[in-house]
Design goal:
Layout (H helix, E strand, L loop, with lengths): L5 E6 L2 H14 L4 E7 L16 H8 L3 H8 L2 E3 L1 E5 L7 E5 L12 H10 L11 H7 L14 E3 L2 H13 L4 E4 L2 E6 L6 E6 L4 E3 L2 E4 L16 E3 L8 E7 L9 E6 L2 E7 L4 E7 L6 H11 L9 E4 L3 E3 L3 E2 L2 E3 L5 E2 L7 H14 L8 H27 L7 H8 L4 H13 L12 H10 L16 H20 L4 H5 L5
Parallel strand pairs: 1-2, 1-11, 2-7, 4-14, 11-20
Antiparallel strand pairs: 3-6, 4-5, 8-9, 9-10, 12-18, 13-16, 13-17, 14-15, 15-16, 18-21, 19-20
Length: about 500
């Protein structure tokens, strides 16, 4: 039997803390003692209730049964996001998790679709993804061909409880208490322990900071610094509220734009999560609250609460013997449901680079390099939603349209506008399908396309585009509704 030699201390619970505890408790159970410290008196944000498909892989790695997870979290399926009013006030498009159309030898599907436009074939671009048609019809099924790409809507509080039970079953020790002090080595400045209000000291070799926006370890103790992105991402506040279900849960998240921000709706099996994300420069809390109460469907279950945030990231996600996770590491914004995903990727990255001893400078540097690239890629994708707009109803959208954006995004937008070409690195989260659905959906229709697309005879082009779209419609027609499918969960 291998003797456990390292003590890993996670400070903070919630989704981030218990995801980390579940992963480290399961994957490193023979090498690492895992302790999670949290206080019942410290509330979590608890509104990250929409996910993206890679969470399935995280669950498979841990051996989590999907049906058990859905039952425990009142979860539903998510095929993508329905965007209303983002291109202009009347626009409407769907960003799905699937592959759009079929590519050809010289390029991606958007080139064929653009040639179709030239010949009057004006079918919705994202409708060439099965997930889009299924979502808008309220349908869902697994085990069908083609397989649907999907994620989940979940109750964040229940998810944390579910993972806590899982983690404790794999040897994770939970310590209840409020962290009142942090102990450091005088020579290295490494963290050696945390002191609870009770006076108890929890010692550790390595620490995971899941303390939320305050960054108790990574910022207040290690003074890592913060890279502010609010000049690109103007939204800096959210107001959230839960409501009773007024209609059957739809298999997608709704995102509706307003003159000062946007509203989300996330349907679970038993309720809906609602919120408004906005810029304090253009809307007051009272204005956002009025929009939320006016437009959120269903009877309110709880009192709305305002959540301020500052878009950006810590300069280092790993400093000394501490890794920041979740809100402690930074925050972009909720628009594309990346928060839980970024928690997961940080956990997986740290698992791969987990230090066996104190000589970890190169591991830390590689971790921070990868994290920086990942966050900047996600940042650019989110900024694109705001930059590419034609709304005429206020200063917020005009500012977003006219603002300078990161050079990486500016180049990508210019290339796509001129040529319909999109290139991405192998490690980027969002695929070409995501970029094309969002950019075309928001009104950025390229001026040109690959010459190779002109090689297809016009009749073949029409047969291909019409046949593919109608084939998806026939496929979706045979599927059950999500409500019908969910009845079999746990059956």
């Amino acid at each position: 039997m291998v003797t456990r030699s390292l003590n890993l201390v996670i400070v903070g619970g919630g989704t981030a803390g218990w995801m980390a505890a579940a992963a480290f408790g399961k994957m490193l159970k023979d090498q690492v003692n895992v302790t999670l410290v949290e206080s019942d008196n410290v509330p979590t944000v608890g509104v990250g209730e929409a996910t993206i498909p890679p969470l399935q892989g995280f669950h498979r790695l841990l051996g989590i049964d999907e049906n058990e997870f859905l039952l425990a979290t009142n979860g539903t399926f998510k095929l993508g996001i329905d965007f209303a009013g983002w291109g202009d006030e009347r626009s409407h498009y769907f960003h799905s998790f699937g592959s759009t159309g079929k590519g050809f030898w010289a390029g991606d599907f958007q080139h064929i679709w653009l040639r179709g436009l030239k010949h009057g074939i004006k079918r919705d671009f994202s409708g060439y993804a099965p997930e889009t048609q299924a979502a808008l019809a309220g349908k869902f099924a697994k085990g069908v061909k083609p397989e649907l790409g999907y994620a989940y809507h979940l109750d964040a509080g229940l998810y944390a409880k579910f993972l806590r039970k899982f983690s404790e079953g794999h040897g994770v020790v939970r310590k209840e208490g409020f962290v009142e002090g942090v102990l450091q080595d005088e020579t290295t400045a490494n963290i050696t322990g945390v002191q609870l209000k009770s006076g108890e000291i929890i010692n550790g070799d390595f620490f995971i900071d899941c303390s939320g926006f305050q960054g108790l370890l990574i910022e207040k103790t290690l003074h890592t610094g913060y890279e502010d992105w609010s000049h690109w991402l103007l939204c800096d506040r959210a107001v959230a509220m839960q409501t009773e279900l007024a209609v059957a849960p739809k298999p997608y998240t709704q995102s509706t734009a307003y003159d000062g921000g946007w509203r989300w709706r996330i349907p679970l099996q038993n309720r809906a999560g609602n919120g408004v994300v906005y810029s304090s420069k253009y809307w007051s809390d009272d204005q956002a609250l009025a929009v939320l109460k006016r437009d959120a469907t269903g009877t309110p279950i709880n009192e709305p609460r305002v959540i301020p945030f500052r878009p950006g990231r810590r300069h280092q996600g790993w400093k000394n013997n501490c890794v920041a996770l979740g809100l402690a590491s930074g925050f972009i914004e909720p628009l594309e449901s990346t928060s839980i995903h970024l928690i997961m990727t940080v956990i997986m990255r740290f698992l791969l680079l987990f230090p066996k001893d104190a000589r970890y400078d190169s591991l830390r540097d590689e971790y921070n390099r990868q994290l920086k690239l990942e966050l900047e890629d996600v940042r650019d994708f989110i900024i694109a939603h705001y930059k590419v707009n034609a709304r005429e109803d206020g200063g917020f959208w005009r500012h977003c349209r006219e603002m300078n954006v990161p050079a990486t995004l500016s180049h990508r937008l210019a290339l796509f506008k001129a040529t319909a070409q999109l290139f991405r690195s192998a490690d980027e989260l969002f695929r070409v399908d995501s970029w094309t659905q969002v950019l075309i959906g928001q009104g950025l229709v390229p001026e040109g396309y690959s010459l190779a697309a002109d090689q297809m005879p016009e009749k073949d082009l029409r047969d291909f585009l019409n046949g593919h779209y109608e084939g998806i419609s026939q496929f979706v027609e045979k599927m059950p509704t999500q409500s019908e499918y969910l009845k079999h969960i746990g059956g």
